[in-house]
Specification:
Length: 184
């Protein structure tokens, strides 16, 4: 298995190249929307994840598959060409890290702050609104919040803003208690 840090670094370089191209063409928002659509497609389609991640499929097959997805989803020509380049260079497997890298660059460009909120169960609209308000007050800017559900945290939430992690999960509190009891 390839080293994740190497894949992330390559993904970030491809993301930067795509971002620079989109910026030059004045298409940052359009390409970002395309990539968010692709991210949703990847999350919802095991077949698509298998196509781009499996070594069983060659670069040509991955390119054809991604081209078909791009046409069907009516993605912008810049995004379509980029997907073709990614596949032709044998890098279709890093698409998720490219999307993440592009989203970060776009958020920086807009002056936005992104936050990842993880909870044990799906949050209600009121809870999302309260978290957004608390982050807005703490950060001084409107955050772009991405939510995840992770039942393993048992309860509470984790909020990641940049490299900072605020962990108010029940699992973390239980782990701290367990550690304290072992020391006693």
């Amino acid at each position: 298995m390839a080293d994740d840090s190497k894949q992330t670094g390559v993904g970030e370089r491809y993301a930067l190249a795509l971002f620079d191209l989109a910026k030059d063409e004045g298409m940052i928002a359009v390409v970002e929307k395309d990539l968010k659509d692709l991210k949703a497609m990847l999350a919802g389609s095991p077949d698509l994840r298998t196509l781009i991640g499996s070594p069983k499929f060659g670069a040509e097959d991955k390119g054809k598959g991604l081209a078909a997805v791009a046409v069907k989803a009516k993605l912008n020509a810049t995004t379509q060409k980029f997907l073709g380049l990614l596949a032709a260079n044998g890098r279709a497997g890093i698409l998720a890290s490219v999307i993440t890298g592009f989203e970060k660059l776009s958020a920086i460009h807009r002056g936005a702050i992104s936050a990842e909120v993880t909870s044990a169960v799906a949050l209600t609209a009121a809870q999302n609104k309260a978290i957004a308000a608390a982050l807005r007050q703490a950060l001084g800017k409107d955050p772009e919040i991405e939510t995840r559900v992770d039942p393993s945290i048992l309860g509470g939430i984790k909020v990641k803003v940049g490299s900072r992690l605020y962990d108010a999960s029940l699992k973390s509190k239980l782990d701290q208690l367990k550690f304290a009891l072992k020391r006693a």
